[in-house]
Structure formats: structure tokens, C-alpha cells
Design a protein that fits this description.
Function: May be a cell surface adhesion protein.
Strand content: 15-25%
Strand order of the largest sheet: 2-1-7-6-5-4-3
Distance between the termini: 31 Å
Oligomer: single chain
Radius of gyration: 26 Å
Helix content: 25-40%
Structural class: alpha+beta
CATH class of the largest domain: Mainly Beta
CATH architecture of the largest domain: Roll
InterPro entries: FAS1_dom_sf, FAS1_domain, FLA15/16/17/18
CATH superfamily of the largest domain: FAS1 domain
Subcellular location: Secreted
CATH topology of the largest domain: FAS1 domain
Number of domains: 2
Keywords: Glycoprotein, Proteoglycan, Repeat, Secreted, Signal
Shape: elongated
Bound molecules: 2-acetamido-2-deoxy-beta-D-glucopyranose
Pfam families: Fasciclin
Number of strands: 16
Length: 466
């Protein structure tokens, strides 16, 4: 029963995505109702609902649904679909990681589009049908991959007459899926266009010369963003029991007065040197001197962050670059406590990386993160293949991702200074400990809720999913 429900749900999900993307896709055209909506009989719907689940997932991740939908509304397509095995076990994990990094979206798109021909090529049209005859033994077809200088795929035959595509991949399931607007051939391996291979090689040689994690960096559970294991063995109750707000130094209208502490000055981690380390990294990175100066010289925030990290809390710093800081007026900075207030709004009490943030905004459309400036949250959404924080004029893009990530502190460079939306008059900044937002990272949602939130997010409704 549960698998039946899941299948039904998946079908609804897929169809809804297609419907949504088709209604959103063409803002500058008059709504053409039926003609722009994708047919449930389409090869595209069939692909997303087929046993090529790995490929479908990549197509979704690559944000290609709209593009492909426009393609099938104009002409037939032929998809060479690598089976799940090819994308799961046979694929170099490093290459896969590369493809899934948000900044390599273009490579992922090119890779996938290289598997699609904008024409209908059934197996009966394969060249060299009559083995031994002198007729055509190879035919070339342009693919949808525009980023490739030679974007043609050759169709040939192997020595025993088997169908081969791209010179390397055997067609294991010819005409596997046939629909009025296209068809799918199952193939046994991935086709990698040269440009993508080159991008990957370039990136790989870059990463090999830049150290990523400091030695002994703690391991973070990607599902919870919590440490998997404390770096040093400590007695029971090592992870902080109180919300981070309780551990913060009391400040004006910042946080509730500290409750009896989470065990006093227990130093599980050397937070001070980690903070020093990230500030050094910021200075070396360049372009973040103002922020470093505020943290170290203008306020005691660096010290405070060090204490929090020592207690086992994790932090993500949205770091405005110097250009952004230069736009701050003296007015904005001169109120007592103003620099702290501004900075607290840029501190998220969770460990987030570029990848984790990008994945959430992709999935839910809009996401809100708690900040250390109670009770304000900072909103994030996907924009231009990146993450955008805040709203309207006061928004900022994730500009320099993962400047520093050591498992407890993550520093993400942004190109603007963020301010909370004006709080409403009847709700002054008085936060009782009871209503203080919990720091506990959000639990996994049910599948249904995920779908609902995703759809709601895409449509811009459903604020309850935040
Ligand atoms: C797709 O191919 C079929 C069969 O050749 C044809 O009847 C149909 O018109 C084509 N569709 C488009 C959109 O070109
Ligand atoms: C703090 O101020 C000192 C003295 O002006 C300066 O040398 C140092 O670079 C500043 N620190 C940071 C992190 O900017």
C-alpha cells in the first residue's frame, strides 16, 4: 500500500511540477492555455516517472524541466538515458560531486543536454541496419548541448551489430519508452561531452592545490548539521543543552538573561582559536577587512563567538564584503550597539554550507534562518543559480561561498549588508525565553509536506512552510 501511495504521489508531484513550470515559463507571452501546458502523455512526463530515476533526479536538479518542456512543445526529442547503475555505481564519485555543486550547474546542464537529440530517432532509423551492405554506417545528430563545440552524437553499430551511441555507449534498451512527442533509449553508460570533462579537470587541479579542511576537522552529520561526534571525548551531555541564545552574553534587547549556564566554562572545543583562524582566513582571502575589523576591534563579537563555539555551538557567518560595508552610513553605525546589532543579524546558529543552503532554497523555494538577533530571521531564496538573502533593496547574494568551513564555523561571503524587516509596532522586542526560537535544526519533514512546501514555495504562497 505504501508503495502504491508513493507512486501516486510521485506522479502527482511530477505532473504538478510540469504544470507549474509550464504556467510560469512564459511570462511575456499571452497565456495560451492548452498549447503551452505539457501533455501528461509527453515523453518528459514519462521520463520523470520511469525507472531512470537517477537521470530524472539530475534533470530536476539541473533545472532543465522548463527548457525541455519548451523543446517538446516544438518538436520531438530522443533521450539517451543512462540506467541507474551507470549514474550510481559506475560514476566517479568525485565527478558526481563536481556536477552537483551549484556553481557547476552549467556543466550539469550541458552533460544532460548532450544526451538529448531534438528529433525523433527510433531504433529502426539506426544506421547500418543491413549489416554487410555498403549503406550508411554512421549518422550524426546534433544534441541540445549548446555549450559544446562539437555537439553531435554519432550513432553506429558494434562488431556484432549492437547499437552504439557516442562511440562508447551500448544501447541496452532501444525504444524503451515511446510517446507521441519523443522516445527514450536506455544506454549502459554516461556520455560526457568534452567541455564538461575539461571543466572538471580544471576544477580538480584547482582544489588539489587549496587546502579545504584543517586537520582534525570535526565531522558534521549532513542531515542534522550537528557534529557527528565531539572532536574530543567528553563526559555525557557534551553538546549544548540550552539554545544558543541562553549562552550568549546578555545584551540590550538581544537575548533573554542567561539561565544558569550549560555547565560553566567547560571548553570542549577551542573556539577562540577557531575564530582567530577564520578571521585570519578572511584577512587572507581579501575583501573582508571591514568585517574582520568590526568583529575584532569595534566589538567584542570575536571573543563571544569563540566562547559559543567552545561550548559546542555552531555558527554560520554571512559575511558582507568590503564593498557592501562601505555603503553603510555613519548613521547606521553610530547608535550605541548598532555594529553588534547589524552583525548579530548576520550570524545563523546553524552550520550551513553553500551546498546545504542552496539545496534547501532549491527544494522549498524560500527558507528562513534564525539569526542571533532575536527575534529576526533572515529569508533566503534561490536566484540566478545562487542563494539570495533578504528582500528587495536590502538583499544580498551569496558571493564567495565557503570561504571558511571547519565543521563548526562556516563563513559565506555576501555582497550586501542585511537588515531585518521593520518589526511591527505592537510587537516590541521583548522576547520571553518561552517564545525564543529554538535552535534545534528542523527535523526532516514528511514527504507530503515537502511536496506541499515545494509547490507552495514555487507559487509564492504558504508562508507556513518557512
Ligand atoms: C513527433 O513525431 C510524430 C511522429 O513522427 C509526429 O506525428 C508529431 O507531429 C511530432 N511532434 C512534433 C511536436 O513535431
Ligand atoms: C585591529 O586594529 C589594529 C590597530 O588599528 C589593526 O592593526 C588590525 O589589523 C585590526 N584588526 C583587524 C582584524 O582588522
Amino acid at each position: 500500500m505504501s508503495s502504491l501511495n508513493y507512486d501516486a504521489l510521485r506522479l502527482i508531484f511530477v505532473t504538478t511540477i510540469l504544470l507549474i513550470s509550464s504556467t510560469i515559463a512564459l511570462p511575456d507571452q499571452a497565456p495560451k492555455s492548452s498549447s503551452t501546458q505539457i501533455n501528461s502523455n509527453s515523453v518528459l512526463v514519462a521520463l520523470l516517472d520511469s525507472h531512470y530515476t537517477e537521470l530524472s533526479e539530475l534533470v530536476e536538479k539541473a533545472l532543465l524541466l522548463q527548457t525541455l518542456e519548451q523543446e517538446v512543445s516544438a518538436h520531438n526529442i530522443t533521450i539517451f538515458a543512462p540506467n541507474n547503475e551507470a549514474l550510481e555505481r559506475q560514476m566517479d564519485p568525485e565527478f558526481k560531486r563536481f556536477l552537483l555543486e551549484p556553481r557547476n550547474l552549467k556543466s550539469l546542464q550541458n552533460l544532460l543536454l548532450f544526451h538529448i537529440i531534438p528529433a525523433r530517432v527510433g531504433s529502426e532509423q539506426w544506421p547500418g541496419q543491413d549489416v554487410g551492405s555498403v549503406s550508411v554506417s554512421v549518422s550524426h545528430h546534433e544534441t541540445l548541448c549548446v555549450g559544446e563545440s562539437d555537439n553531435r552524437l554519432p550513432l553506429t553499430r558494434g562488431t556484432t551489430g549492437e547499437k552504439i551511441v557516442g562511440g562508447v555507449a551500448k544501447v541496452t534498451r532501444p525504444d524503451d519508452v515511446i510517446r507521441p512527442d519523443g522516445l527514450i533509449h536506455g544506454i549502459e553508460r554516461l556520455l560526457v561531452p568534452r567541455s564538461v570533462q575539461e571543466d572538471f579537470n580544471r576544477r580538480r587541479s584547482l582544489t588539489s592545490i587549496s587546502a579545504v579542511l584543517p586537520e582534525g576537522a570535526p565531522v558534521v552529520d549532513p542531515r542534522t548539521h550537528r557534529l557527528k561526534k565531539p572532536a574530543t571525548p567528553v563526559p555525557a551531555g557534551s553538546s549544548p543543552v540550552l539554545p544558543v541564545y541562553d549562552a550568549m552574553a546578555p545584551g540590550p534587547s538581544l537575548a533573554p538573561a542567561p539561565a544558569p549556564g550549560p555547565g560553566g566554562p567547560r571548553h570542549h572545543f577551542d573556539g577562540e582559536s577557531q575564530v582567530k583562524d577564520f578571521i585570519q582566513t578572511l584577512l587572507h582571502y581579501g575583501g573582508y577587512n571591514e568585517l574582520a575589523d568590526i568583529l575584532v576591534n569595534l566589538t567584542s563579537l570575536a571573543t563571544e563567538m569563540g566562547k559559543l563555539v567552545s561550548e559546542g555551538y555552531v555558527l554560520t557567518v554571512l559575511a558582507p564584503n568590503d564593498e557592501a560595508m562601505a555603503k553603510l552610513t555613519t548613521d547606521q553605525l553610530s547608535d550605541p550597539g548598532a555594529p553588534e546589532q547589524i552583525m548579530y543579524y548576520h550570524l545563523i546558529p546553524e552550520y550551513q554550507t553553500e551546498e546545504s543552503m542552496y539545496n534547501s532554497v532549491r527544494r522549498f523555494g524560500k527558507v528562513q534562518y534564525d539569526t542571533l538577533r532575536l527575534p529576526h530571521k533572515v529569508g533566503a531564496e534561490e536566484a540566478d543559480g545562487s542563494v539570495k538573502f533578504g528582500q528587495g533593496e536590502g538583499s544580498a547574494y551569496l558571493f564567495d561561498p565557503d570561504i571558511y568551513t571547519d565543521g563548526r564555523i562556516s563563513v559565506q561571503g555576501i555582497d550586501g549588508v542585511l537588515f531585518p524587516l521593520e518589526e511591527t509596532k505592537e510587537k516590541p522586542e521583548k522576547v520571553s525565553p518561552v517564545t525564543a526560537p529554538k535552535v534545534v535544526s528542523k527535523q526532516r519533514r514528511g514527504k507530503l509536506l515537502e511536496v506541499a512546501c515545494w509547490i507552495g514555495g514555487s507559487l509564492g504562497h504558504f508562508t507556513s512552510c518557512y
